[in-house]
Amino acid sequence: MNEVVGHHDILLVTLDTLRHDVAVELAAEGRIPNLARHLPGGRWEKRHAPGSFTYASHQAIFAGFLPTPAEPGPHPRLFAASFAGSETTADGTFVYDTPDFVSGLAQVGYHTVCIGGVGFFNQQGPLGTVLPGLFHEAHWEREFGVTSPHSFENQVARAEQVVAQLPVDRRLFLFVNVSALHQPNWFHLPGATREAGDTRETHAAALEYVDRHIGRLFSAASLRRRCFAIVCSDHGTAYGDDGYTGHRLGHESVWTVPYAHFFLDPAGTDLSETDLAEAVR
């Protein structure tokens, strides 16, 4: 990360509530081609979430505790606060003297931007301001939230605006919390109804919806220079697994999450020339 920070833009996307098993199945079945083309080897990495619900997990993630590889460690971290005795801080770790890597990146010249999704980012009350308050610039609208069938498209459009307005010489750390996977998600599956509610199948359909639009986000994030991207879930969720429903509980469906990091090359490779011109304008 010490070769990335200061030279590349950085994108962190949390696919809020995405289950590992669903993500793996869809990649293997060719149902998320725009994500799969960037996954190392076309596969998600299996990891353990640092928390069982959004607030706890993101507090840990922003402190440098990204989801941990699901195998015995120790596992060197990409980001870490200066902390005596840390066994996961390695030579390549970006070390900062602030409580979180958002402010650590800000200290070295990054403009930090949050595009929120679920309620913990809505800035509608004291609790909803904690996580967005880490950033220079934070965006949330009801159309970005869990009740909108077009939430991710709206978030991507805002990301494109942010990139277009930022001076080219200013490094960017862009964080997007994708709300589409979180319940309610029944409206992403044709034929599903509110009365029938959310299922593992509607959860999968929501991921397919995100995949249809994520190329635009990747292109915006790499429009100005090479970008280092991290895409992961913050936690999973249960749909009747062993009798459990939801999250904020200790079940395999909640603790096991998909993770990937990779580079995005500039020049808007996910956009046509017409779309690229529109994005720049």
TrEMBL record:
Keywords recorded for this protein, A-Z: Hydrolase
One GO molecular-function entry: hydrolase activity
Keyword Lipid metabolism applies: no
Cited InterPro entries: Alkaline_phosphatase_core_sf, STM4013-like, Sulfatase_N
Pfam families in the cross-refs: Sulfatase
Taxonomy, superkingdom: Bacteria
Domain called Sulfatase N-terminal: residue spans: 9-253
Protein name: STM4013/SEN3800 family hydrolase
Naturally occurring in which organism (per UniProt): Streptomyces spinosisporus
